[in-house]
Amino acid sequence: AFSMEKTRALLVKLHGALRSASKAGVADALTAEWLRDNPDDNQVRYLVADTAIRNEDFQLAAEQYQHALKNEPNKVPLLHNLGWVYERMNDPRALEVAETAYKIAPDNPGVLHDLSRLLIDKGDAKRAIELLEKARLLSPESQLVRYHLARAYAKNGNHNFARTELQQLLRGQP
């Protein structure tokens, strides 16, 4: 079908079928050719990036997200994915990407969490606490936010606050 009508939808289906049939090289060649002809097709770039992540090819995923970001510079999920990939690569640009997302969506709990987590790792627990407290108010049921808030409190020497957050986190857990 794809040879008769080259559409993104058929490419995606063919890509999945080829990968399932252990023909990853052919699938990857098809998407690479598609992107040469359609360089601004972010949907296919996301497919390639997702596949690269599953294969732990973080460099390829980063390249795809970087290119997609040129077309959608304010897309928060894209910034999240690129930052996550950079983080896996130990690339310091992860913090820069998280800061960019924060400028775009300062009230998004996921953005606050991502930036805070990176700030903790960089030694800025004080700012991380401010952002995570805001994220906790916006998303009080988030276990990840509470965990990282406890972590930031502990790094900042606020062990009683850390303990309180951990106790809240463990409520209702076996």
Q: Care to give the gist of this entry?
A:
This protein is mainly α and 174 residues long. Helix content is 76%, strand content 0%.
Structure description:
The mean pLDDT is 94. The protein contains ten helices and no strands. The chain has helices at 8-20, 24-37, 42-54, 58-71, 76-88, 93-104, 109-122, 125-138, 143-155, 159-170. 34% of the residues are buried. The chain has 174 residues and is mainly alpha-helical.
Question: For the report, how would you describe the main beta sheet?
Answer: none
Structural class: mainly alpha
Q: Level of helix content?
A: over 70%
Q: Give the overall shape.
A: elongated
Radius of gyration based on Cα positions: 20 Å
Strand elements, count = 0
Please give the alpha-carbon distance between the first and last residues: 52 Å
Strand content: under 5%
- Poorly predicted regions are none
Mean pLDDT across the residues is 94
Please count the helical segments.
Answer: 10
Element order: H for helix, E for strand = HHHHHHHHHH
Quickly list its features.
mainly alpha, 10 helices, about 0% strand
Topology:
Blueprint: H1 8-20, H2 24-37, H3 42-54, H4 58-71, H5 76-88, H6 93-104, H7 109-122, H8 125-138, H9 143-155, H10 159-170
